[in-house]
Write a structure and sequence with these properties.
alpha+beta; 5 strands; single chain; 239 residues; 10 helices; 5-stranded mixed beta sheet
Length: 239
């Protein structure tokens, strides 16, 4: 594009004094950045004439350079990141309360996010949220069995390998690591870090990220009063 490199570097330096001078390379370091502080619980509802309630529970998480990102991927897999996860099995498969339910995590330079999404019909809203609240509480005390831990690790490793089948995907992974200041890990090194995740690692992270005092709730749906009644089990969850 029509961009002058030196001019762009000067602009970046003006807002980030610690940025390296023109021509310098970014170090591939792994700073341990703490989770952003000050997160507090809040709720928000947007009234809309929809057939379903679309509800999201979430809070701040760890930053991209945090080594605990491997434990987070395993935790996400156990909680709601795939079809064998607790939320998918309890909400959809066993009770048929929702078609779409999952957990997710997003990692950024200095902070991150973790959340749970569900879309469910009005008559199922209260029971759906009650089941989710129960699973959040269970994750705080017993985030994974040995079987769940192994299954989640294998799922993450399998998806990682499949995602790198093309040359373009491999180059994209390397470029992302460089741009984000992360170490250039081989696939085997990344798998070793996933294999090293223990139940204690997952438990400690779950207690930090799923602390009910830090989880906010937002929803879109037809009835705010029904939403407020439905989320009461979440307010009762204890860390």
């Amino acid at each position: 594009g029509s961009v002058e490199h030196d001019e762009l570097v000067e602009m970046v330096a003006a807002i980030a004094p610690e940025a390296p001078p023109s021509g310098a390379s970014m170090p591939c370091s792994e700073p341990e950045l703490p989770m952003a502080a000050g997160a507090t619980r809040s709720t928000r509802f947007v009234a809309k004439d929809t057939e379903q309630y679309h509800l999201c529970i979430g809070g701040r998480a760890i930053a991209r350079p945090d080594e605990r990102r491997y434990a987070l991927r395993v935790l996400d897999g156990v909680l709601g990141g795939n079809a064998s996860s607790r939320l998918f099995q309890e909400v959809r498969e066993r009770r048929g309360l929702a078609y779409s339910v999952f957990s997710f995590a997003g990692l950024y330079t200095q902070t991150g996010e973790i959340g749970i999404y569900v879309g469910t019909r009005p008559e199922n809203l209260a029971q759906t949220v009650e089941v989710i609240a129960s699973e959040v509480e269970r994750a705080l005390e017993n985030p994974a069995t040995e079987e769940e831990l192994e299954r989640s690790r294998e799922n993450v490793k399998g998806r990682m390998v499949l995602a790198l089948e093309s040359t373009g995907a491999r180059m994209g992974r390397l470029a992302a690591s460089i741009l984000h200041g992360l170490p250039l890990l081989s696939l085997d090194e990344a798998i070793e870090r996933l294999d090293a995740v223990s139940i204690d690692d997952v438990r400690q992270l779950a207690r930090e990220l799923l602390d009910p005092a830090r989880l906010s709730v937002v929803a879109i749906g037809p009835d705010e009063a029904a939403f407020e009644r439905a989320i009461r089990p979440l307010e009762a969850v204890r860390a």
